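Cross-check.
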Amino acid sequence: MPFASPKKRRKLEQRISSVRSQLAKVKQTRDHYREQRDILREQRKVAFSPRLLLAQPLSGLGIEIGALHNPQPLPPWAEARFVDFNTREQNIVKYHGHEEVDPDKIVETHHLGDGEKLEMLEAESQDFVIANHMLEHCKNPILTIENFLRVTRPGGRIFLSVPDKRFTFDWQRPITPFSHILEDYKNNIQIEPLETYQEWQKLVRPKAIAQKMFENQSNIHFHTWTQTEIMEMYFRIQTDLHFPVIIESMISHGNETCAMLRKGRINDETGFAS
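Predicted model, tokenized:
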């Protein structure tokens, strides 16, 4: 401003400074409300979570398997310890740079070991077991449920959620019938066959190398179900295998089916749990 007097320049600079100060306050207020908005959104997710609604009967001290950065929301009267193959530090390194995993939210590992076998836990030592999006990764899901029942106290509960293949990348894959997982259970399958990985390569990830995945026994969705087959599995381990399990509730929401099972006692006369 070559033609402005020093006095006018000072006034203009004061105005500019005042406007900048006001803009900074507006930005601070905006950021504050955005932060509050995001907090409320997260609270709504929990408040209206079907998983949390279904989990209300959980109480006492139990375990959650493979929670990683997204543990199951629990009511105040329930507390979970976490089971994982890796320590928290190992998982932070493993998932470094992974877009979907926030390293700050990765949970501590309280029980280190195989979540399918739970060999580190004593029988009837847990008030509940939680396994979200795990059974489809198990080579022998019926044996896994049997191990869940082994470590759960009578009257304790098992909370399971399983993806519905119709709403995932598995949508083109054939459904895994109950007869298949029953055969795996009877034969105590330990190695997933090459055909499973070839199907995965063909229908899910064409660039994958099935032979290499088979040799490494890579962890994929070994089984694919819809809501119908998930329900059938829970009913038939009760009716066909006489597992001491009572189906308390089930709900389908989004891409998953959630179930609450309760461990009962086998009635000697009927052969069923009560």
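The first helix runs from residue 6 to 47. The beta strands are 60-65, 78-84, 111-112, 126-132, 152-163, 245-253, 256-263. Passed to J.P. for a second look.
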